[in-house]
Amino acid sequence: MAMSTSNLTIETLNKMFAEGKRFDGRGLLDHRKLEVSFEVSNKAEGSARVKLGKTEVVAGVKLALGTPYPDSPDKGNLVVSSDFLPLASPRFELGPPKFDAIELPRLVDRAIRESHMIELDKLVVTPKEKVWTVYIDLYPINDDGNLIDAATIAAIAALKTAKVPGIDKDGLVDYDTHKVALPISKETAPISFTFFKLGNSIILDPTREEEEACEAKVVWGISKWNKQHMINSCQKGKRTVFTRAELEKMMDLLPEKFDELNDKLKKFL
Amino acid sequence: MAIKRESGRSLTEIRPMMAKVGVIPNADGSAIFAFGDTVAIAAVYGPRQLHPQHMQDPSTGILRCNYDLLSFSVSDRKKPGPSRRSQEISKVTEWALSPVVDLEGFPNTVIDVQIYILQADAGTRTAGINAASLALAHAGIPMKNLVCSISVGKLDKDLVVDVDKAEEDFKGGEGPTDFPIAKIANTDEYTLLQLDGKIQPEVVKKILKLADKACEEIYEVQKKALKEVVQ
């Protein structure tokens, strides 16, 4: 069995959550301190570093020329990947990705893709033949829980600063010249909120210890589109159920949580 | 003005369902479940000794699910072998079924659930979960209840139950949203939630209610199939 949280810790957390308390003094739905910075690598078309408490994720955007997918001949491509480097946690090992490392980029991909934040139709060089592929690569640098939410913020921050490289006279990418900003929506950028459940309590932004103790989670990607809050992606995880009442409460909470975190983010962008 | 479905179905109408239990004699439990042209077949093997040994849990048996498409179940041949998509669906299927099975009586064992899609026309994970739920019951695994699963969609502003492939590729307005859901029959407990698209939080609440109704119908089909095998 994998390293797991002791029963004593789980019981203690369960009791504390039921009283609305956490080890670090936060309320159940409060985030840790958020910090966003840029230019992790000047070789990337855009990059960002996000810290949520002790959790740290870096995101880099690279653009390359490629051929469009047959089902979207007039659109650029989006590829989101992640690698859980053994650098970031004693839990991570080299080798083929474990489920967490498969799930994270898929959920970030869905939140970004379905929100239509990137204007992929403006990334066509030659229709049906040559388009830009936008690669977003996400690396945890220090895992202290809530990686999916942190990675989504890192991805959108990196996208907001990304520029499209030039193309030289031979049709090759000239990575030394970046002329125009990556075409992204002014209004829409998704944020991810993962609700975790232990006993009857629901919390946001868990530390690694809290996350391991929890029995269920559900990830929601949410953005604003035409001035409305829109949920773009969702995935429930782990072996415990969510009740209808719990899900309905999340639907009431999500718009206000989105506005709150979005305001915090704006200060960095 | 509500949209007209290409299939002629009403907005809340599920495609014709087919369920049959006991379709693989070698398996401890098996079933086939179809929503119209989407057909899933599932087999249960176990409880049996779990290997490798270090994965064994002395406090309980574990459920392990594997979902995939047969290569010829889709228009563009699917390359055989697991993909990231199939690995994700395998995992969410495992999570969807785990809450109803009680495996404490089978320490150190595994129950393997194998789900394959014979023919795909959208809703493959939901059909797979319905088939697997039946196969687990057929295998005599202690279960609290059956799990029922359905996909509810939003096409522009209209909500439709049991999205088919044509609807999945819908274009225009607010676009298509696909929301596969599974729940424990006759409860308000949800075991699978996955979503892709663009949908207002208030509409999510409505979709949960639509899924409840559909799951009641699915539950009846599942019960009937289980009774037929017993007779």
Task: Explain the overall architecture.
The complex is a heterodimer of chains A (269) and B (231). Chain A is built from five helices and 13 strands. Chain A is an alpha+beta fold and 269 residues long. In chain A, the strands form three sheets. In chain A, strands 1, 2, 3, 4, 5 and 6 form a six-stranded mixed β-sheet that branches. A four-stranded antiparallel β-sheet of chain A has the order 10-9-11-12, sandwiched between helices. Chain A has a two-stranded antiparallel sheet with strand order 7-8. The longest helix of chain A has 23 residues. The mean pLDDT of chain A is 95. Chain B has 231 residues and is α+β, with helices and mostly antiparallel strands. In chain B, helix 1 packs across helix 2 and helix 2 runs parallel beside helix 4. The model of chain B has no long low-confidence stretch (mean pLDDT 95). In chain B, the strands form two sheets. Chain B has a five-stranded mixed β-sheet with strand order 1-2-3-5-4. Chains A and B meet through helix 2, strand 11, strand 12, strand 13 and helix 5 of A and helix 1, strand 9 and helix 4 of B.
